[in-house]
Structure formats: structure tokens, C-alpha cells
Amino acid sequence: DAKTTQPPSMDCAEGRAANLPCNHSTISGNEYVYWYRQIHSQGPQYIIHGLKNNETNEMASLIITEDRKSSTLILPHATLRDTAVYYCIVRVVGSARQLTFGSGTQLTVLP
Amino acid sequence: DAGITQSPRYKITETGRQVTLMCHQTWSHSYMFWYRQDLGHGLRLIYYSAAADITDKGEVPDGYVVSRSKTENFPLTLESATRSQTSVYFCASSEPRTGRANEQFFGPGTRLTVL
């Protein structure tokens, strides 16, 4: 799995968009970008994934640069409940082995 | 939609005792995983299972035993608990056949303290 780099922490005002960056400069052509989050004391939760096109679901949007070396997870209207550690993971689709969680980004949504 | 459950949610035991953590999922997912998360650290894989009666070691398997006689259950046993096994244990499942192998669904966790 390609290595990812994320800032250790970020703050965001409630109601504003939270933009969480991830660098994955060594990503291969068959590797997808996955995002998970872990709210304090809970199990990690899948958010979204993508290959090269931008993706959107009910939780978030994922923007992947054209060269695929970086991506941004966007929470359009952050709430206090979005405070969590967000993990960016790169891996080949269909690889059913364990997920490797790095350090992630601690997002704190401020009232 | 019960999902994936773990029991007990909290457990305190003593060094040397045998402890079994239970994991149950209602989706009939073929893959199941056990991770541990130590304070301030990421998740590390203990064991995983690709199907009933098929298990394999992960990154930190020593001191643990698993079994999977039924698809929906994946118990984790600490044969002789040690203080270093104090941790939060997460069970997860996924179904590669749907093309969503990397979407793992996690249980709520079991917080284990070994005195």
C-alpha cells in the first residue's frame, strides 16, 4: 500500500466546510484512496473512496488531483459530531487484507 | 439491521486468566478481522479470517487464539492474559465479493484491562 501523509490536527468552525488533505505521491494506478474516521472510543467508520474521479456521498466529498498524488476530503457543513480522527488509506481494490491506519488527522469542530 | 456486535464491552481480568472476546455479524460477510488499539496508537491486526474454518495471523498474533466455526462469529481468546494485552479490541468484517473489500465495518470495541 502506498504511504500517505496527513497533518496531525486541524480545527474547523461548526457549520463551515472542513477540508482534510492527504498526500499520496507514490500511489499506483490500481490503488484507490479510502477515508475512514474514528470518533473517540468508537470503531473506525468508512466514509468514502475513489480512484481518480471526484466522489460524493451523503457524508462527504472526495477530491482527487489529476495526477492522483493528493486528495482532499470535504465535510461540507461540519458539526460537533464530526470531531474525530480522519484516516486516509491507499490500497488496491479487492485486496481483502487488513487496513493499515496511519496517524490520521485529528479534526476538532469548534462551536 | 443489527450489524456487528462485540461482547463484553468492558472486561477486567487478572494476569494468567483465559479471556474470550466475542464478535458477531449479521451480514454474512466472508471476511472478519480482530484489531487491537493501544492508547494513542493506531490499530494493529491480530488475526483475520477469510471464511468459516479459515484463519490467518496478522501483525501481532502471539498470545491470542481465534476460531471461526460459523460465518457470523469470530471469537478471540487470550489463553493466559498478560498486562501488555490491556487494550481496546475491535472486530471488523467485510465482503470482497461485492467489490467492497476495503469497506470494513467495525464493531463498537471491547475495552480489556488486565491487572
Average pLDDT taken over every residue of chain B: 92
Beta-strand percent range of chain A: over 45%
Q: Strand-and-helix sequence of chain B, N→C?
A: EEEEEEEEEEE
How does the major sheet of chain A shape up?
A: 5 strands, mixed
Helix fraction of chain A by DSSP (H/I, runs of at least 4): under 10%
Biggest sheet details of chain B: 7 strands, mixed
Helix/strand-derived category of chain A reads mainly beta
**Separation, N- and C-terminal Cα atoms of chain B:** 36 Å
Could you outline the blueprint of secondary structure elements for this entry?
The complex is a heterodimer of chains A (111) and B (115).
Chain A: E1 9-13, E2 18-23, E3 31-38, E4 45-50, E5 55-56, E6 61-64, E7 70-75, E8 84-92, E9 105-110
Parallel strand pairs in A: 1-9
Antiparallel strand pairs in A: 2-7, 3-4, 3-8, 5-6, 6-7, 8-9
Chain B: E1 4-7, E2 10-13, E3 19-25, E4 31-37, E5 43-51, E6 54-57, E7 64-66, E8 76-78, E9 87-94, E10 105-106, E11 110-114
Parallel strand pairs in B: 2-11
Antiparallel strand pairs in B: 1-3, 3-8, 4-5, 4-9, 5-6, 7-8, 9-10, 9-11
